[in-house]
Design goal:
The chain has 83 residues and is mostly helical. It has one domain: lambda repressor-like DNA-binding domains (434 Repressor (Amino-terminal Domain), Orthogonal Bundle). It is built from four helices and two strands. The protein has a two-stranded antiparallel ribbon. Strand 1 and strand 2 form a beta hairpin. It starts with a helix and ends with a strand.
Length: 83
């Protein structure tokens, strides 16, 4: 069930697996394995998804969507972010 949620969320955001992987600092195959259920999706990913969704909605509401490249980027596999 989690794999379907991740894939649906990613597609709703208009991102490819490569887009999400690059933004997180991972390889595309990692996202692919998460979505196929071959590897467990880390718990921190659900938090990240919620934060991204919230920022995305706020950007739509403010009519000032910023590109993701201007936001914080995950720099470690533990999910720590730098800005």
């Amino acid at each position: 069930m989690q794999k379907e949620k991740l894939k649906l969320w990613r597609k709703d955001m208009g991102w490819t697996q490569t887009d999400l992987a690059e933004w997180l600092g991972y390889e595309r195959w990692t996202i692919m394995k998460w979505e196929q259920g071959k590897t467990r999706i880390p718990k921190w990913m659900w938090i990240v998804m919620g934060l991204i969704q919230k920022e995305h909605i706020r950007g739509i509401n403010e009519n000032t969507q910023r590109p993701l490249s201007n936001r914080g980027k995950c720099t470690t596999r533990e999910g720590r972010f730098s800005t």
